[in-house]
Write a structure and sequence with these properties.
Shape: elongated
Order of helices and strands: HH
Number of domains: 1
Number of helices: 2
Helix content: 40-55%
Length: 71
């Protein structure tokens, strides 16, 4: 799976980055699901950076328009 020349610290560091990203996605998805309340996506005015805490600096909001091709 890993080359023999890879330093173990790089392997561990890469694994930690993958786990952190997955957890971030899970946290944001859970919050968005709660905010949506049956809608497809939360409205832009429903998104409060303070609700995401420190995760906010790792997030990007894309304003989707209808039709999606106009975004």
């Amino acid at each position: 799976m890993f080359s023999e020349t890879q330093d173990m610290s790089y392997v561990i560091s890469d694994a930690i980055r993958v786990v952190f990203k997955r957890r971030l996605v899970d946290r944001v998805l859970r919050l968005w699901t709660e905010m949506a309340r049956g809608q497809r996506f939360p409205r832009r005015d429903q998104i409060e950076p303070s609700m995401l805490g420190v995760d906010w600096m790792n997030c990007l909001v894309i304003a989707v328009q209808s039709p999606v091709q106009a975004s």
